[in-house]
Structures are given as structure tokens and as C-alpha cells.
Amino acid sequence: MTKDKFEKTHEQIDPQVQERQPGFENEMAPEPIYDDENYKGSGKLEGKVALITGGDSGIGRAVAIAYAKEGANIAIAYLDEHEDAEKTVAEAKAYGAQAYKFATDISQVENCHQLIVDVIAEFGQLNVLVNNAGKQFPQDDFLDISPEQLRETFETNIFSMFYLTQAALPHLSKGDSIINTSSVTAYRGSAGLIDYSSTKGAITSFTRSLSANISEQGIRVNSVAPGPIWTPLIPASFGAEKVDKQGGDTPMERRGQPSEVAPAYVYLASQDSSYVTGQAIHINGGDFISS
Fold this sequence. Notes:
Elements lengths: L2 H5 L41 E5 L4 H12 L3 E6 L3 H13 L4 E5 L5 H15 L4 E4 L15 H22 L8 E5 L3 H4 L5 H20 L6 E7 L13 H5 L13 H12 L10 E4 L8
Parallel strand pairs: 1-2, 1-4, 2-3, 4-5, 5-6, 6-7
Helix pairs in contact: 2-3, 2-9, 4-5, 5-7
């Protein structure tokens, strides 16, 4: 990984707006950096099976690739971004992993339970659950947040974590790990993403509370709180001008890349973090966060 490689990622980009959440990586220009060629696996996750929601693209794809490099077998859950999911599976397999994709809407409890059934049927085990899928719908006027939007945001971002974790927990054992994707907005708020940042705050509390609840089982629960990362959610959420300026107001003056976030998920899934639970790792280009 070179400094210049990532400095160049905040250059002028072609105007782009996607019309649907959570977005398509294959339509982005430039393509996010999801595989850091200088990241070398060392067998940290050998023999483990990981389920990653939102694993077709963005941070989820980068995590899937990093886990594959570390020896894990991969299940990704996604909504209907089939082309993106196919690419993620192919990339993971190229690193020697078994990898399967499952198209489902995890905002619905019955789908979450079926997803876990399918993963266990395919792999025979589950060791790492990465609750990563999410949606956001910007609204500058708080009064414009409709009940329908509020419901969709909460069902996708936080209800699904309850559903999936409850379904997965009977299959997890001592040494296994649950990792939840939070956000910098959980800690500093967001005037235009009130419902989204509220779900991320809930995820932070969920992580802390669940970690205490199941600590005696030896299952660790942590979160990662990214800042402005170049994922499909960005052009699917904002206008072209805001997309172009993403990350420019951070101390590092650039957006981050999914490959810069993925190693935190490796750390939290591996025994390197055996004395870490209930915590959040902040990856946000230098913003100071008091948690």
C-alpha cells in the first residue's frame, strides 16, 4: 500500500448519481479499492466460516476478500445486486476460499432465519457474523422523514442485526465473533441523516450491551465505525457535487477506501483481539471521536 495510491482517490470524479439504495459497485467511477495487493494473509482465519451481510460491494466486499486471504470460507448476503455479488464470490474463490452468495432481504425476520439455515447447510458451521448491510436516505428537513422511510431504515440497519444475531447465536461457540458496522455519524450526529445516524447509535449500544450479555459464552461482539468511505451507498445517497467532495473535510482531506477498513474486521474476527469486546474501532481519516 503506498501513500500516493490513496491520495489519488480524491481526485475529480465523473458526476454520478444512482437512483436506488443501497447502490451498485459496477456503476461507480472510479471503482472502489477493495483489494489491497500489499495485504498478505497469514492464516488468521483458517478453518473459519464468515457470513457478511452487504457482502456484494463496498466495505462488505473488501472484508470478504481480506477474510478469504486469511483462510476463511465466505458467505455473502445481499439484496439483488447480482453482478456485484458474482464478482465478490469470484474474487474470494481466487484466493482459495469456498464462497457462496445468498440473495435475500434481511429486513424481514423470516429471511434472516432462513439465511442462517442456508449458511449452515452449505458450510456446516458459522464462526464470524459481520452485520454490515445498511441504507441511508438523506433529508435536510427533519419533517420530511416519513414513517415509511423511518421504518425501512430501522428495519434494514438495526432490526436485521437482532434477527440475524438471534438466529446465528446457537451456532456460534467460544472464540467466535460478531462484528457490527456502525458509523462516525453515531458519535458526532448528522443533520441530514437523522434516521440513519440514529440506527448507527443503536448499533453502538447494541454492540456494547450484547457483548456483556454473551461474554460468558466466550463470543466477542465489537463494531467498526467508518467515516467517509467510497462505497456504492455514496452515489446512491447524494448529489454529484457532494459525492465529488466526499471526505474532503477530514483531517486527511480525502475519502477512504474499503480496503483501508477491512483489516479492522480481520483483527476483530481473529484471536489477535481475544481480549477485545464491546468496543468500536474508528476509521475516519483523522476525526477525533469521544466514545
